[in-house]
Design a protein that fits this description.
This protein has helices at 24-39, 58-70, 86-98, 109-115, 138-146, 157-167, 207-217, 230-242, 273-278, 283-289, and strands at 2-3, 11-14, 43-48, 80-81, 102-105, 152-155, 173-177, 182-187, 197-199, 222-226, 249-253. By secondary structure, it is α/β, with parallel strands linked by helices. Glutamic acid binds next to loops. Residues 15-17, 49, 211, 225, 229 line the site of glutamic acid.
Amino acid sequence: MTRAVVAGRPALRFAPSPNGALHLGHALSALIGFEMSRRLGGRFLVRVEDIDQVRCPRHLAEAALTDLGWLGIAWEEPVRYQSAHFADYAEAIHRLEAMGFLYPCFATRAEIAAAARTAETDPDGAPLYPGIWRHASARRIAAHKSRGEPFALRLDMARALDAVRSRSTDPLFFTALDADLHARSVLADPARWGDVVLVRKDTPTSYHLSVVVDDARQGITHVTRGLDLLAATDLHRLLQVLLDLPAPLYHHHRLLTDDTGRKLAKSAGDTSLDRLRAQGWSPGDVRRHIGLA
Ligand code: GLU
């Protein structure tokens, strides 16, 4: 095991998607990132992942910042709101499109489920895309576009992986850090995502694309996030290579589970930080409860 080094001052971030109140799981993630930034003498940034502006209204983002401040977390201003940076994502999308890695897909969820040839799913549990639109003719695409039908843009995974292989003899690796900052190399397996959606039908980007663009724009050197996003890192590494973006180091931390052993969800309203605060919990109580005291 080795110690990983980065050029320049480390920068870390907490990047919530505020489609509900922050709960104890968010507190754990934010505090782990904040404390690692302090240990490393680095910067700590906050990014609001609100590409879905219907589900992530501004008042929930503001409530999230109030919760973080209450926990004793300090961050550098300005907070980056993804909803203010669609132009950055469009630029990355155009680059991927110009390189021939994206194609439009008009299929509905039901059509995809019906066409799925195997029971195989991607790491989010969605059926692996059966390729319905992968080789559609320009005429067919134009006909659907002219009818104003909504479409997503998908990554042609096989093509992207071929391009990466032809560029370098190295397979895709990322550097994973444990809690003591010991580093090891992990082989990424983006193929398990299949032809993943990079531009959604309802918003002109996606979680995966926005995250890699923003981590680069914000100069993030260490990504700290939950183990639930471990598989996403495989895909993020591929997108970084395709877009020539730097590779941050990754620390995937433990997850809090509820009484039934399931990951705490945002719907777990009884662990929301505002409710616990109203019940008289202190930031120290939160830390003790999540095993950080
Ligand atoms: N916005 C994501 C979430 O709340 C986290 C993104 C990340 O840390 O990469 O699950």
